[in-house]
Amino acid sequence: MRNTLNFNAGPAALPLEVLLEAQQNLLDFDGSGMSIMELSHRSDVYERIHQGAKVYLQKLLRIPQEFEILLLQGGASLQFSMVPMNLLSTDKTAYYILSGVWSEKAWKEAKKWGKTGILASSKDTNYNFIPNDFSMPEVDSASYIHLTSNNTIYGTEWRNYPSSSSIPLVADMSSDLLSKNIDINQFDLIYAGAQKNLGTAGVTIVIIRKYLLERSSENLPTMLNYQIHAKNNSLYNTPPTFSIYILYLILKWVEKNGGTDRMEQLNKEKAFALYSKIDESNGFYLGHAKENSRSRMNVTFKLLTEELTNKFLQKANDYGFVGLNGHRSVGGCRASIYNAVPLSHVQDLITFMEEFKQRLY
Ligand SMILES: *Cc1c(COP(=O)(O)O)cnc(C)c1O
Q: What's the rounded mean pLDDT across residues 194-210?
């Protein structure tokens, strides 16, 4: 029974329409007499899905021709390693902006591979804001700058990305890619695991400027080499065909529902409604993120005491809300409101928050 209100941070809610379409086609995909999972990844039928996903991505995100789209495995976490392995040369430094645990992890992997520097950090205040006040490193010494566009755990999100002039800008967009319009041209490499906003675990999207592919050394392990994946259309080995199929269905769903423009509008609406509830509660609910850094994907808050927070979470659970527990490093509560979370679920949560405040605690 699907009577839950799913606010999971990832893997996260998927649109019911997408699940139903996948279910309908599960046994016999497109008249092939086989499940999509049983088809050869070299077959024409699968090829249509593989190319289709790339074409949708290109269209929905307005990705210019200068970029290559890769569909890889290993999650965003493998990109923490692949980015420095492919882009960082021995004579240069990779600069990291630390805005949460994910960017820290990315930085730690880069440190294993070469020289790194930290441009800015908000660690001292438990990552409650986007540290965007820093000076750019010298162009000649820098390999790239890395940032995390949305900090899933802390509920902070970049509004104005740094303009890096001639230093390549790399972004982990695992939890906000496709949630809004972005100008891809501001970036040189974007990566995102699919299980937050784009589908299901198993496929990782990498959008990379073609000229950067030349940096990949042939001494790299084959499977960790961007250039090889690009040359082989992400079919060097068996890709995660089912995850790519779900990605394809999600992209089709986004297109049908008005594209990233409409997603952005809806996400603004959902986030505004929740933050308003928090702000109007006279301190009953306390937001974690500073106002000008608030995420539209993950809304983090707590109640006055830990005991009250736990009671809130317990009651919420009784009422069918799922996934509202904050990450263990922040505690409190977190409502993840990705594209697939309908406005009606957010409104139900707001009603519950009001009721809890008025009479349930
Ligand atoms: C979830 C998440 C990750 C980790 O993704 P995996 O696919 O589990 O490796 C990395 N970065 C961000 C911003 C995330 O939200």
A: 97
